[in-house]
């Protein structure tokens, strides 16, 4: 069964700092990769997704992620965070059975 | 860590019948649960927000009379797909927020196939 690992449980940083959240998956075949964000009290929103093509994917709100197939990774980055980026971030993967598998999530706290 | 379960994990039903899917938070009380639908190899689509003790809030385009949501207790929300049709075949995923930690947890999903 495929699994998704997010390395950081909780990240705390200051405004304007750079953010990188790690995500690794275990499935060896063709995968579709997603990053979602959930702001306090709200539902999940899609930040970005990778299906094929350019492994560097740009999403909304200045986020980007890079798919490195050899490392089974899909790390999320943002060069300069804002207080409004405080949220929980989920990496998700689906493969042949199309069911999404989620990582445990990373809580990001941005201090003003 | 906190766990959210869904039952059943997989269900096959005939067109025209109704199917109930349960979402339970196992070790925390969730005043709010979310129901999502996932089409093959696509992103999640929020269907509705389930609030304990009150009516669910449905997203635009989601038929509230077709997808009945009941959140009767702080640990259980149910989604009933009424008069199911083949186009309702999909994965249905719920999530619940642990108010103590503020973290969200996802159920494993229910695969519905309508024949």
Give the structure's gist in a few sentences.
Chain A is mostly beta strands and 112 residues long. Chain A has strands spanning 4-6, 10-14, 19-21, 23-25, 32-38, 44-50, 56-58, 64-68, 73-78, 87-94, 101-102, 106-111. In chain B, strands 2, 4, 5, 6, 9, 10 and 11 form a seven-stranded mixed beta sheet that branches. A four-stranded antiparallel beta sheet of chain B has the order 1-3-8-7, with no helix packed on it.
Describe the structure.
The complex is a heterodimer of chains A (112) and B (115). Chain A is built from no helices and 12 strands. Chain A has 112 residues and is mainly beta. Chain B is mainly β and 115 residues long. Helices cover 0% and strands 53% of the residues of chain B. Chain B is built from no helices and 11 strands. Chain B has strands spanning 4-7, 10-13, 19-25, 32-38, 44-51, 57-58, 67-73, 76-81, 90-97, 104-106, 110-114. In chain B, strands 2, 4, 5, 6, 9, 10 and 11 form a 7-stranded mixed beta sheet that branches. In chain B, a hairpin with a 5-residue loop joins strand 4 (32-38) and strand 5. The A-B interface holds A 32, 34, 36, 38, 40-41, 43-44, 46, 49, 51, 88, 90, 94, 98-100, 102, 104-105, 107 and B 1, 32, 34, 36, 38-41, 43-44, 46, 49, 91, 93, 95, 102-104, 106, 109, 111.
């Amino acid at each position: 069964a495929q699994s998704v690992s997010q390395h950081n449980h909780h990240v705390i940083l200051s405004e304007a700092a750079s953010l990188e959240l790690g995500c690794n998956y275990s499935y060896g075949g063709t995968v579709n990769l997603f990053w979602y964000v959930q702001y306090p009290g709200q539902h999940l929103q899609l930040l970005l997704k990778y299906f094929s093509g350019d492994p560097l994917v740009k999403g909304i709100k200045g986020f980007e992620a890079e798919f490195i197939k050899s490392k089974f990774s899909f790390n999320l980055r943002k060069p300069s965070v804002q207080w409004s980026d405080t949220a929980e971030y989920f990496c998700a993967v689906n493969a042949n059975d199309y069911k999404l598998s989620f990582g445990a999530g990373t809580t990001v706290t941005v201090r003003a | 860590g906190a766990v959210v379960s869904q039952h059943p994990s997989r269900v096959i039903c005939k067109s025209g019948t109704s199917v109930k899917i349960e979402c339970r938070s196992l070790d925390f009380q969730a005043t709010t649960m979310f129901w999502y639908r996932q089409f093959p190899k696509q992103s999640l689509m929020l269907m509705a927000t389930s609030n304990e003790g009150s009516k669910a809030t449905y997203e635009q385009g989601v038929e509230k009379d077709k997808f009945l949501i009941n959140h009767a207790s702080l640990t259980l929300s149910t989604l009933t797909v009424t008069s199911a049709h083949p186009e309702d075949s999909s994965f249905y995923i719920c999530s619940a927020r642990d108010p103590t930690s503020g973290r969200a947890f996802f159920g494993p999903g229910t695969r519905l196939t309508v024949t």
